Each structure stands twice: as C-alpha cells, then as structure tokens.
C-alpha cells in the first residue's frame, strides 16, 4: 500500500516537472507575448525592415524592448555600434534574472545552464520564480518547455506582425502596449498571494516604483529599472532579516 502511494506521488511530481508541464505553464503568458510580438513586427516593418530581417532579428536577438529600440534606431539611421551598445545596456537586467535563478540549476553543467539562460526572458523568469515559492528545485525539462514555448510564440508573433504591418500603422491604438504590463501585474499578484511575507513584498514593490520614477527623471528608464531591481531587492532582504 505504501509502495503504491509512493509511486503515485513520484508520478505526480514527475508530471509537474515534465517538459509538457512547462509548456502548459507558459500558456498564460502567450497572450502577452503575442500582442507585443505583433507590435514589434509592425514597428519593424514601419522602420523599413523586411519580413525576413524581422524574423532573423527575433530569432537571434529575442528581446522585446531591444527590438523596439533597434527598429527606432534603424529608422533614424543609427550606426551599428550605437545600436549594439544600446541593446547591451538595455538587456543588462538579464544578468540579474539569471543570477536569481542560478541557485536552482547549480547541479547542471555550464553548457546546460547556458541553454536555459539563452532563452530566459522577463516573462519566463516571472513564471519560474513563481514556481520557486512552491518547490525548492526547478526541473531542467520543465524550464526548457517554458522557454521554448515562449520563444516559438515570440518568433511567430513577430513574423505575423511583420506580414500584417502594411495594414496596421498604429499598434498602440489597439491597446497592444498594455498587454505586457497587464501580464506582469498578474504574475506579480499570483507570486505575492502564494507567499506568507506579504508586507515585505508590498514594501519592495513600493520601493521599486519610487526608485524607477526617481532614477528615470535623471537618467534613462532602463537605468531606472536596473537600479530599482538591485536596491529594492536589497531593501527587501534587509527588512526580512531585520524582522
């Protein structure tokens, strides 16, 4: 009897850590990916890029904010060095995202860690970090299912947006610009609801908002996000240790 219970428990845990489960857990984020991906494709088309060029950028760069910036700088005839440098600074936050998840994949080889990190985005990080509130370790197969699903959806959305870009001149008028923030708000609420330290989470969130606004007034919004992430997380850790 105990053996059967153990087998059933193992089967449930194995299912929760499977590649297919990672695909399923990515589904709630797909609408956000789809809307922003369509907008990125449309803006890339208005910047003068072909469907093939937009597809290649989405496959190799795979970064929404960076692709929007690239499209604007390409339309303004910016130099290759300036575009590369700007994209580098905008995406520095991925170092923080990877560092936050790295403790859960220490048992993997550097190459396997690289495969996971290469497809890590803000959205997949949000889903993955939510999982850390439920379990101490994240499955490699589950993470690949999550990442690859998001990646394919993003590339397809970019290509579709590039194709239909000739008929959509203003994607903001369709409300596509609000889809991604709305998705992140939903992920944040789910994460905070699953944690017992709600007061600390609220303090960190308020500090992050104040820091983003404050730094953005004297510097770029990208710098504000990075500074807010580091300082708000540090404040949250200090408050938690103090309590």
From TrEMBL:
Localization annotation: Cell membrane
Membrane disposition: Multi-pass membrane protein
One Pfam family named in its UniProt record: AzlC
UniProt similarity note: Belongs to the AzlC family.
InterPro entries given in the database record: Brnchd-chn_aa_trnsp_permease
Transmembrane segments: 38-61, 68-90, 150-168, 174-191, 198-217, 223-239
Organism name: Paenibacillus yanchengensis
UniProt keyword annotations, A-Z: Cell membrane, Membrane, Transmembrane, Transmembrane helix, Transport
Main location group: membrane
Protein name according to UniProt: AzlC family ABC transporter permease
Top-rank taxon: Bacteria
This protein's record includes keyword Membrane: yes
């Amino acid at each position: 009897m105990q053996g059967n219970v153990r087998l059933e428990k193992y089967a449930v845990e194995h299912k929760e850590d499977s590649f297919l489960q990672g695909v399923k857990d990515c589904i709630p984020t797909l609408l956000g990916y789809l809307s922003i991906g369509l907008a990125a494709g449309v803006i890339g088309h208005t910047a003068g890029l072909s469907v093939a060029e937009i597809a290649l950028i989405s496959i190799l760069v795979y970064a929404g904010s960076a692709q929007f910036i690239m499209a604007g700088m390409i339309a303004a005839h910016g130099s290759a060095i300036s575009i590369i440098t700007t994209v580098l600074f905008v995406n520095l936050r991925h170092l923080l995202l990877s560092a936050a998840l790295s403790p859960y994949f220490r048992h993997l080889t550097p190459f396997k860690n690289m495969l996971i990190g290469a497809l890590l985005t803000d959205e997949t990080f949000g889903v993955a970090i939510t999982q850390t509130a439920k379990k101490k370790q994240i499955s490699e197969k589950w993470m690949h299912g999550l990442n690859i699903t998001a990646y394919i959806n993003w590339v397809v959305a970019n290509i579709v947006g590039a194709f239909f870009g000739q008929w959509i001149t203003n994607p903001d008028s369709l409300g596509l610009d609000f889809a991604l923030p709305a998705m992140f708000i939903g992920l944040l609420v789910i994460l905070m609801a699953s944690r017992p330290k709600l007061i600390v989470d609220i303090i960190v969130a308020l500090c992050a908002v104040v820091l983003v606004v404050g730094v953005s007034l004297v510097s770029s919004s990208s710098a504000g996000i990075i500074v807010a992430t580091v300082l708000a997380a540090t404040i949250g850790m200090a408050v938690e240790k103090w309590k």
